[in-house]
Write a structure and sequence with these properties.
about 270 residues; alpha/beta; 12 helices; about 40% helix; globular; five-stranded parallel β-sheet; binds S-adenosylmethionine
């Protein structure tokens, strides 16, 4: 019988945030695949867990995926962990999960810390609907497109950012977010945990002197009035949501809601789209 692939969330700073179930799984599996084995070893040592570790990171993902899938097929149970938080969220995970699904291997999530969710829930910004865009790309063209998505997003936007790039990113955001609220969630769960809440000008000033890890949460664009959406052609309305990463099903639901018409009516019009 094939083994199970456990996707195990680990703390994003405070070691007390590991769950009892995560510890149990880490103790029980045959192998732990870790983004940085030295980093994970510290976590394991802290909880007195001794297990064979295999490195599994962005640069060896393809090659290591095959090795790990073979082990799973041979009946070994594997836990996948990243350096911090939830694997697969701006961390390695996607590749092996997709392949495990193809190979009909059982995959079990072991929930725990995820930086963006904790930034969002304490931001004070609308949590009902949000989009997570990960890190803004460095490629100028793609970055511009993402900034446009942020500019047009009616939903709260969440971004991850590396410490040395936050100032530059905030300066780019200044061009597009006008007076929307912005929150910087810094060093979550650590000694210097802090939430900055204000506007973009203040955020830029704040970021001049900060160190550590940060998440940016931006209020949705409330100025984009419903009637602006209705004034779009159906095609433009579709593209507007497509660019924000919504699936066809979600787009149909949103367009129908904006236009106050039954979903079926929109579905019939969009039936040709992929
Ligand atoms: N998979 C992880 C998760 O979702 O929890 C995120 C990994 S990603 C490579 C690292 C980014 O997450 C950092 O650049 C920062 O934006 C954010 N992050 C991780 N830990 C954080 C913390 N303790 N406080 C604030 N931001 C954090």
């Amino acid at each position: 019988m094939a083994g199970t692939l456990y996707i195990v969330a680990t703390p994003i700073g405070n070691l007390e945030d590991i769950t009892l179930r995560a510890l149990k799984i880490l103790k029980e599996v045959d192998i732990i695949a870790a983004e940085d084995t030295r980093h994970t070893l510290k976590l394991l040592n802290h909880f007195e867990i001794s297990k064979p570790l295999i490195s599994y990171h962005r640069h060896n993902e393809d090659q290591k995926t095959n090795i790990l899938i073979d082990k799973l097929k041979n009946g070994e149970n594997i836990a996948l962990v990243s350096d911090a938080g939830t694997p697969g969220i701006c961390d390695p995970g996607e590749v092996i999960i997709k392949m495990a699904i193809e190979e009909q291997i059982n995959i079990v999530p072991i929930p725990g810390a995820c930086a963006m969710i904790n930034a969002l829930i304490c931001s004070g910004i609308d949590t009902k609907e949000f989009i997570f865009l990960g890190f803004l790309p460095l490629n100028k063209k793609i970055r511009k497109e993402k900034l446009k998505t942020i500019s047009n997003s009616k939903e709260t936007v969440i971004l991850y950012e590396a410490p040395h790039k936050i100032e530059e990113t905030l300066k780019d955001l200044k061009e597009i977010i006008e007076d929307r609220k912005i929150v910087i969630a810094r060093e979550l769960t650590k000694i210097h945990e802090e939430f900055f809440r204000g506007d973009i000008e203040e955020a830029i000033k704040y970021a001049e002197n900060i160190k550590g890890e940060n998440i940016i949460v931006i209020e949705g664009n409330n100025k984009l009035k419903d009637n602006e959406l209705i004034d779009m052609t159906l095609e433009e309305h579709y593209i507007y949501y497509k660019k924000q990463g919504y699936s066809k099903k979600e787009i149909i639901k949103k367009v129908a809601k904006d236009r106050k018409v039954p979903k079926n009516e929109i579905y019939m019009k969009y039936i040709q789209k992929e």
